[in-house]
Each structure stands twice: as C-alpha cells, then as structure tokens.
Write a structure and sequence with these properties.
This protein is an alpha+beta fold. The protein is about 40% helix and about 10% strand. It folds into 3 domains: about 55 residues, Molybdopterin biosynthesis moea protein, domain 2, CATH 3.90.105.10; about 240 residues, Hypothetical protein af1432 (Orthogonal Bundle); about 60 residues, no CATH class. The chain has 13 helices and 12 strands. The protein has a 6-stranded antiparallel beta sheet with strand order 10-9-8-7-11-12, with no helix packed on it.
Amino acid sequence: MLRVDLSQARPGMELAMPVTHPRSPETVLLRAGFTLDGKTIDRLSELRAREIWIKYPGMEFVAEHISPAIVRAGQRLSGAIGSAFEEVLRDGAADLEYTSYRRAIQELMERLVECPRAGVFVMDLASSETPLSRSAGQGCFIALLLGLKLETYLMLSRARLGLVARDVSNLGMGALLRDIGMLARPAPDRWQWRLCCDEVDPTWRDHVTAGYEMVRGEIEPSAAAAVLHHHQHFDGSGFPHRTMVSGKEEPLRGTDIHIFARIIAAADVFERMRFPPAPAAGQPEPAPVPVVRVLNRLLRGPESAWLDPMVMKALVQAAPPFPQGSLVTLSNGLRCAVTACDPRDPCRPEVAVLDRFALEPGKFEHPRERIDLRETEHLHIAEAEGQDVSTDLFFPQTPDEFDVHKAQTALIRRPMDGVAG
C-alpha cells in the first residue's frame, strides 16, 4: 500500500482502501479494488479529495498501520459537528447535540485504542464548506491522539482523580467545541481572522469567552474550561488572563494551565499551521503545509515557547513527519516509500527505493533496496507531500529529545529520587 496525493494518481492504479465522499463520509464512492480511470480521477479532484491508498507490491505490511474504522469514526464525528456549525452559520441557530458528540468521540477513542498503530496517520477526517467545522473535527482527532499518548502525564497532572484521569472524552469534547464562540461573530469578522490571523485582535479574542458561555452547563466543567483556555501559551503569552482577588490581571503559564487546555493548544496551532486559509472568501483553500514544516516551526521557531514540552514530544509521535507508506524523494533524486521510522529520530526513516516508473500502472516492481537514513549521512529527504522539504528537516539535539515515553517515566521516578536523596 502507498499513500498517494491525488495529483499523483494515474489511470490503472488499483485502490487499496475505499474512497468516501469528502463531505458525506457515510457515502462510499469507490471500493477497495477499484481500478482508477481518468474520468474518476477528475471527479475526485472536483470533490476536493486529497489522497488515496493504492496497492503496491512489497508494501502490504503498511496495512497494519491503516484502520478504515478509525477513519470512518472520525469522519462521522467531523460530519456531525460540521452539519451543526453550518446550520448555525446559515440560519443563525441550531440545536447542538452534545450527547451525540460525546458518543461519537467515545467511538473514535475506542477505535484508536483497538488499533494504536493506526493512530499515526493524521489525515483529513472530512472536508467541509466551512473551515471552522473542518478545523473542529481535525483538532479533536489530534487532541485525542495526544491524550492517548500522554496517559501517564494526564494521571500525574490530575492525580486526585485516580484512574478517571485517563479518560480523554472530555478532552475531545473541549477540542471539538473550542472555536464554537466564532459562530457568534459576524461573517466579516470570521474571514478577517482567517485572512490575517491577528491574535491580538480583541474582537477575535472574545471568541473564547463567548464559546465558554455557550457550552457552560452543557458539557463537563473540564471541557468547558478548555474551551475558555485553549489559547493559553506555556510561556504565559496567551489569553485570557485571570483576575486575582486584588483585581489585578495576570497571565496563566506553565502547569497553571489545565492539562486539557495545554493539549488542545498544541492540536489547535498544529491544525491552523497545516491548513492555511483561502486567500479570499469563496476561494479554494491552498494545499496543506507539509507536516514536517509545521513540526519544525513548532520545535525551532518562535512558537516553540507556546507549547508544553511534554505535549510537543507527543505531537511529534502523533503526527510524524513521514509516516509509513508515504512517498518521498531523496536528495539524490530517488523516489522512495517510507517503510519504518524511529520516533526518536523522525526525519531519518528507513525507506524502500521504488522503481523509477513506480507510479506508472503496470510497471510496479517490488522495492529492490532499503536505505536507513540514520546510517546514510550523505542522503536526506528532499521532497514530501509534493513539496520541497529539504530545509524543513529537524533532528534531535539530545538522544531523548522526542522520547515521550522516557520523559513520562522520568516524571514518575523524580519524586522517588528526591526521597532517596
């Protein structure tokens, strides 16, 4: 199996996974085994489908990292909230089915727990006519992935709750509804934000308090608080500030920010960086920014101080830059498929060299050579997701920089070390 951008699809390719309607995930457009033709590819492009999975000899092992059940569960969740958001934007009102959203979140969680290997693919769950509803579903999916990878950190951060601290359903609810306050803003204000992304605009900042007022009493307090605080930054530069007894306003920073808000903040900024806004209302949105570029910016750019370092470690694993089955091009021009990745060094995966006619149907050949980029200093990934990423690669500055499991284990041992000393 190979994950192929639709722009690289060719007549004669055979689908390895079904293709569902981007805006109606219950509708299967093409079943696994279907052989593509030019007319079908054009139709998928018109529907704004982004990628497909095709059969490829020698890459069958990738199937264990793919779960149609996860994709369907995520699409149902995204579609449900999307329909409600679009109804509000169209008619000015809608009955938000909080109970059904919770059930959909729990179903998605169950599928992720059943197939933990399949959680590494952070893909579009569903398209939508409104960026707001697409963002809601995608952000919820990423937040749940992070919550499941941060189980120990959640339990330590919410120790008074015992085993209940591992339940991330309220985390998912807060992530899903984090921007619901934007529905109360006039359309010009929403588009102004999408175009300028001016985070100091007080009109836009009001969406967190408006959203909190909309959901308070309807969802659990921890989820409602996450809606209010999902724009907090770990370095204290976020909002809103808290009002002290003296009346003075002070920023929230570090672990004073609820763990749910810290996780959702990472999911939110990742989603916003990956999916840039359209240049104007009604125009199609540009292609997604490569994951490796987003992660590099969050790790090394000015936004690095915004995120909880532990959450950032988990994000690198939840949204790996080069998942197995992805097509990449090396610096020497070789077209390859990613076959394995060490999460401690995610930009130097193992790759299988494909035949130079790899994407020409009828000329598929078994990969003849595998290259471990950790052992080949003169080679690196130059292109991924159809874009040049040679300057976006990042590498661990310490051996354990991206080892979230080891970092969480160290938190457990630290109090014991203190006693022993």
